[in-house]
Amino acid sequence: MASLKELRGRITGVKSTRKITNAMKMVAASKLRRAQSQAEAARPYAEAMRRMMAELAAATRGADAASLPTLLAGTGKDNVHLVVVLTSDRGLAGGFNANVVRSARQLIDSLLAEGKTVRILPVGRKGGDILVRHYPSMIVEQLSGTEGKDVGFDKASAVGAKIITMLEAGGIDRCTLVYNRFVNAMTQIAVQAPLVPLPVAENDNAEASDAAQYEFEPDEATLLAQLLPRNLQVQLFSALLESAAGEQGARMTAMDNASRNASKAIDRLSQKYNRTRQANITNELIEIISGAEAV
């Protein structure tokens, strides 16, 4: 049985931990409000940009694939795939990083099973450390994430420039982004979003059919060459904002659960402490009474 001193030490330690988790929950909650508003504000712009690219892409149907930008049509091959994985730089966020890494590994393993060559570009230390252990020879470069700070467009520009450089050099044929899409503080959904070649859904084709009747100035190919790199940066920036909001939401939820568990542990230890203390007092009284009777 633990002594009263040991129990007091445990209670003190758990209370200190609860103070830390409560403080981290409050910090995450304050950051979440800002990150959530930024992510929600970026969604309409990213969606509008995607639809505009779909309209321009529809207007180029029938054109020679070799004359189209590689960001639109790819390299014409399907051999080398780049998987960009967005995670956080810090932990204590529940299953936030594990979920997106699990989704990335499923994609990577399926591509390898099809005989494809896979390159991995981790953005974020936590996910990068895991992927380096499982796929050390496939890592192109390990980039830092947002480091818990506000997401800047320069981060998306740097990642986009890396992708474009590899694409133009013929190092990759396709690119897919894996990240956590923010739903609410308790829910983040791992998403696999194709970036290269430009995805055009069936409903986008129908919507873009009328848009293709318009005349573009300058021509569609010139517009695509100018706008496609910007679209790539916008989609990456939106994903980074979604990931940042999801990270803060996951951390707030994880720290709230940790604080609740700490409170339960304190109650159990306090109950055990009181019972042990009462048992010690009872034993001392029995010893005193026994001694008095012996006299």
From TrEMBL:
Stretches of the chain forming a coiled coil according to its record: none
GO MF assignments: ATP binding; proton-transporting ATP synthase activity, rotational mechanism
Family matches, as InterPro entries: ATP_synth_F1_ATPase_gsu (IPR035968), ATP_synth_F1_gsu (IPR000131), ATP_synth_F1_gsu_CS (IPR023632)
Keyword Membrane on entry: yes
Membrane topology of the entry: Peripheral membrane protein
Pfam families noted in UniProt: ATP-synt (PF00231)
GO cellular component: plasma membrane; proton-transporting ATP synthase complex
Protein location: Cell membrane; Membrane
Keyword terms, alphabetized: ATP synthesis, Cell membrane, CF(1), Hydrogen ion transport, Ion transport, Membrane, Transport
Coarse class of the protein's main subcellular location: membrane
Superkingdom: Bacteria
Swiss-Prot/TrEMBL GO biological process terms: proton motive force-driven plasma membrane ATP synthesis
Annotated NCBIfam families: ATPsyn_F1gamma, PRK05621.1-4
Complexes and interactors: F-type ATPases have 2 components, CF(1) - the catalytic core - and CF(0) - the membrane proton channel. CF(1) has five subunits: alpha(3), beta(3), gamma(1), delta(1), epsilon(1). CF(0) has three main subunits: a, b and c.
Family statement: Belongs to the ATPase gamma chain family.
HAMAP family, sorted: ATP_synth_gamma_bact (MF_00815)
Entry function: Produces ATP from ADP in the presence of a proton gradient across the membrane. The gamma chain is believed to be important in regulating ATPase activity and the flow of protons through the CF(0) complex.
Protein name: ATP synthase gamma chain
Organism of derivation: Gluconobacter wancherniae NBRC 103581
